[in-house]
Amino acid sequence: MKTAPVLGLRENAGQFALLMLVNAFVGAMVGLERSILPAIAEQDFGLVARTAMLSFIVAFGISKALTNYVAGRLSDRYGRKLVLVAGWAVAAPVPFLLMWAPDWNWVLAANMLLGVSQGLTWSTTVIMKIDLVGHRQRGLAMGLNEFAGYFAVAMSALATGWVAARYGLRPEPFYLGIGYVVIGSVLSVFAVRETLHFVHHETHSVAGPVEPLNQRELFWKVSVGDRNLSSVSQAGLVNNLNDGMAWGLFPLVYAAAGASIAEIGMLAALYPAVWGLGQIVTGALSDVWGRKRLIVGGMWVQAAGIAVTGHAGELMGFAIGAILLGAGTAMVYPTLLAAIGDVARPDWRASAVGIYRLWRDLGYAVGAVLAGLLADFYGLGSAVYVIAGVTVLSGTLAAWRMSETRIAATNAG
């Protein structure tokens, strides 16, 4: 007779820590591009129009968003581990395409593959951690997961900026990516264990009637129908709209103010570093304070950080803006995932996470297109201020529509 799995962070600490490590290498793959790809677009490929330059973020965002949706469904059907390993296989060509790309289309192809890989790997590590911990420490679990991923984004951005400043933009910075893929793949194949049986156990223990939903009904519920789930989805989209703008435009804003490649790398790392470290605290706080106040407040703090960056003209101001943006994102990012886990039943939770992450990561594409068009027609400063305004509106919408989900999860448990 098999022993029933035990839910909880402490009870599954070893596997949870391993998944954090795997997600660090997942995040590090994104960090490869964070500080240097806009410079590569200008210097190696002669791109001047901001819309064309930010097309790599559009390719990344759309492919990642669509893959998030597929990853949720596949992991419910075939298990989490298989999807995780497949994601690393897709990532394998990315460093080589970036370091040897003869034209910009190769960079776009690399970012499409990177988006697919991120959708498969990051989605799966999120879902597996939710599987392991149950409802009691869901916010802390998401904070730890996102800390591992985004602190690694920061460290990788810092490392590639340092390497690029000393050895050039290509190919040396992308050698790091080969190591990330090898280590992440080995850990995923040989050390990570399947968690789908935790879901089956939790599903049988949840009180209340089963709520069978087909994919159309579930998509409508998460996107529009449920006030909490749809509020989370729109906030996630605007959050990553901000991130797409910060990824693509902020290095250009810094460069226009006279920052060097090394300084740009440092600033590009500061925002995700604050974001990553802050999530250890904010994820746990959401288990105590609830989700809504952190989501609403976090969107408004993000807006303040973006506005400060747009107003600043020197490194100290840029650093303050990056810190505020990182702090606001830390308040929002793990809390949104925890709120999805609060509301969704275990039997359709992975699919709900996939739909949420579809909308959230479409924000990369929306942000890159919107920021690029605004920058081309009205200038970098105007683009930054418009995005700040959109972020204020998103927080206000969540304040109006959303109720507290942590209470519902506690009662259900």
Automatic annotation (TrEMBL):
Keywords: Cell membrane, Membrane, Transmembrane, Transmembrane helix, Transport. Residues 12-406 form the Major facilitator superfamily (MFS) profile domain. It comes from the Bacteria. Its main location: membrane. CDD domains: MFS_MdtG_SLC18_like (cd17325). It is a multi-pass membrane protein. The keyword Membrane applies. It is found in: Cell membrane. The keyword Membrane applies. The chain crosses the membrane at residues 12-32, 52-70, 82-100, 147-168, 174-192, 294-312, 318-341, 362-378, 384-400. SUPFAM superfamilies: MFS general substrate transporter. It holds the Pfam family MFS_1. This is MFS transporter. It comes from Cognatilysobacter xinjiangensis.
